[in-house]
Amino acid sequence: MTSGNDSIDELFSVSWTHRLRFTDNAFVQGGSLDEVIHELNPATILTVVDIGIENNNPIFTQSLHQWLNTTDCNRCAPIVLLGGEQAKNDMSIVNQVLGSINTNNLCRKSCVLVCGGGAVLDAVGYATSIAHRGIPIIRMPSTTLSQCDSGVGVKNAINHFGKKNFIGVFDPPFAVVNDFRLLESLDNKHWISGLSEAVKVALVKDGDFFREIESVASKLVQRDLAMMTLIVKKSAILHLEHITNGGDPFERLDARPLDFGHWAAHKLEQITNNELTHGEAVSIGLAIDLRCSVGLGLLDDSVATRAITLLKNLSLPIHHPLMDSPALLEGIEEFRQHLGGQLTLLMLKDIAAPTNVHTLDAPIVRQAISELM
Fold first, then answer.
1. Are 111 and 42 in contact (CB under 8 A)?
2. How far apart are CA 313 and CA 220, in angstroms?
3. Torsion angle of C-alpha atoms 222, 223, 225, 227, degrees rounded to 10
C-alpha cells in the first residue's frame, strides 16, 4: 500500500524517421514509392486521389493505376475526393475516408497513399490519425504549396466553428514523396500561390535563399519547371530541418516561427469565404506582418519594401478589399488560442533575423494595412 504522497515521473521519448523523397517519376520500378512501400510492407494499401489530379493530370493518373496493378501489396479500389479548402470545411471527407478504411478492413499495419493538395492531405491525414488510433500514411503532395510546406509537416486538421484547423492532431506521415510531374498540371494561380510559403521560410531562416528567389522570380512566373523544382525542394528541406532539428515539432512551446504572417492569413481565408487560396492569404499576411515589423520599430522600411516587392514580382497579392474588416483583428486572439499560452507572434528585425513579440496593438495593424491598400 502506498501513501498519498507517493509520485512517479518517468521521462520517455519516441524516435521517428521523417522520410522525404524528391522525384520526377515516383512510379518507376524501384523508384521512390517502391522504396518506401518496401520499407513499410503494408498489409493493404488504400489510395486516395484529389479530383484535381484525376481531371487534369491523366499521365500521372495512368502511372498511378499501372503501379497499383503491378504492386505485390493487397490493394483497395482508389477513391477520388473533392479538393480545395472545402475538403476541410466539414467532416464529409474525413467520414468518407473512415468509411473506406472500415469497409476495406484496413488495420494499423495497412497504409493510405494520398495524392493531392494541402487541404486533401490535411483531411485525409486527420482521418488516418484517428482510425484505429493511427494508420500509416504516405503523402504525395500535388501543389507547389503542399510540396514546399504543408505536405512536409506533421499536422493534420479540418476547420470548424469558422476557425482554421480547429480540429486536428500532430501525426507525422510515414513518408512524403514529392513527384514534380504533379506540378505541371497546375493552373497559373496554383502554380504561383504556393511560393508565398517559400518566401516565408526564406525571410525567417535563410537570406541566401531569399536572394535566390529574388533572382529567379521572372522564371518562376513564366512556369520554368526546373527552376520551380529547385525552389520547392529548398523550401521543403528548410521546413523539414525546422521540424526535425528545431526542438519543437509538436508546438509545445510558445513560439511558432514557421507561421510568420499566418495569424492574418488564416482569418483572411475565413472572411473571404476561401476566395483566397491559402498561399494567396499567406502572401497578404506576410505583407501585413512585414509592415507591422516596421511599425513596431523592429525592421527597416527598405527591407520590408524589398520583401513586398518580391511578392508582387511573383504575381502574389499583398492586399484584399476585406483586409481592413474589423473581423481580421480577431485572428490575433484565435492564433493565441490555437497555440495556447501568451500571445507569441514572430516579427522580423531583418531577413533571417526573426524575433518574438507578445503584443500587437490594433493601431499598428491598421496602419500596416493602410500602407498596403
1. yes
2. 10
3. 40
32 vs 371: CA distance, rounded Å: 47
Three-class SS of 126-162 = HHHHHHHHCCCEEEEECCHHHHHCHHHCCEEEEEECC
pLDDT by residue (tens digit) across 265-299? Answer: 999 999 998 899 999 999 999 999 999 999 999 99
Mapped onto helix, strand or coil, the DSSP state of residue 339 is helix
Asked if 304 and 293 touch (Cβ cutoff 8 Å), the reply is yes
Average pLDDT for 60-78: 90
Instruction: Report phi then psi at 88, rounded to 5.
Output: -105, -5
Q: Which of 279, 85, 120, 305 is nearest to 192 (CA)?
A: 279
> Tens digits of per-residue pLDDT, 252-267?
665 566 789 999 999 9
pLDDT tens, position by position, 302-312: 999 999 999 99
Tell me the pLDDT tens digit for each residue of 170-196: 999 999 999 999 998 899 999 999 999
Question: What residues are paired with 186 via a beta bridge?
Answer: none
Whether residue 48 is predicted with pLDDT greater than 60 in this model: the reply is: yes
- How many CA atoms lie within 13 Å of 103's alpha carbon, on the beta-carbon side? 12
The answer to whether residues 49 and 78 touch, using CB atoms and an 8 Å cutoff, is yes
Place of cell 500561390: 193
Please report, to the nearest 10 degrees, the dihedral formed by the alpha carbons of residues 115, 157, 281, 355 taken in order: -120
Report phi then psi at 249, rounded to 5: -65, -25
Buried b (16+ CB within 10 A) or exposed e, 21-57: bbbbebbeeebbbbbbbeebebebbbbbbbebbbebb
User: Is the pLDDT at 169 greater than 90, yes or no?
Assistant: yes
Instruction: Report helix, strand or coil for 39.
Output: helix
Q: CA-CA distances (angstroms) from residue 364 to 10, 24, 142, 204, 290?
A: 46, 45, 37, 21, 11
pLDDT in tens, 5-42: 788 899 888 888 889 999 999 999 888 999 999 999 99
Instruction: Give the integer Cα–Cα distance in Å for 325 and 331.
Output: 11
